[in-house]
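Q: Sequence in, structure out?
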Amino acid sequence: MELRHLRYFVAACEEGSLQRAAQRMNVAQPALMRRIRDLEEELGCRLLERSSRGVIPTTAGERFYRDLQRHLAGIGRAVAQARSRGAEQGEQVGVGLLYNSRRYTFLNRAIAEFRAERREVKIAFVRSQSRELIARLHDRTLDLAFHYGNVPLRPEVRDRLIHTEHLILALHPDHPAAGSSEPLSLAELARIPLVWLALREGGEYHDALLHGLRASGVEPAIALRAESYEELIDLTLASGGACITAASTVLAVPEGVLTFRAIRAMPMRLNLHLAWTAAPEGSPPAALLRHLDAQIARHQAEIRGGTQGWFRLAGQPIVEVPG
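A: Exactly. Output:
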């Protein structure tokens, strides 16, 4: 039983709708329903009555909801106080990372500058999907989070677009399609069996990608399914196969381990963002954000100038910045 799963139940009670509760909690509706069912099984009683008009708590669910309200309010106050004291003491900054985030040069430069300036401050990294990272940012258990821009943000959260990544094809070096460096067409892509990322709770961008490809008249040939980004790459290597992945995967694997090809007319791209909550001037989160701002500006200038090799494949841009 996890704290966020209890919050799913509270949201369902307050919204009277599983769909609205899922939107509020930034999670896929099937995942929210599964967690509430898990909660009911663990407690040994039905918590919600479902109908065509929505959901209402049972008698047991109503009592459980009222108890949770008190406890969650207390937990929220305790977390806020602890984070406030931690910020005052310069103890820690919470940063949410996507799978490939730690490989970005601009992030590493910003962290190096921050650590040189604030040696007493620890940085606590959390690696997860966009939805989970933004949920933690909303809960104030993270100070900053990278995300792909496909998650609703609360009004108090600030956000900056860093760059746009193309989706590319990663292949085992012995794969038949690895013999060329030329960009692939969608018709060529459709003939290549793929390792596909199928996450259990919200498929991140791959669910939208599947719909986009089908709307473009392409049905991907899915040969294997992976349940994590690490497994996606591992299965691609183990099977001698291919997968669709973000351009930044070029940074995430040693040179020569995979071969990469651009794909023409892909129906979607990934917009990498940095989101954060306001922090007092001079606090550790504000200091780290200042260094990130400067290094993101430098990063965007490097993309425009084409000064890093991974920004292009066979002469075609795979990373871009707006304007």
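The chain has three domains: 3-81, 90-163+270-320, 167-261.
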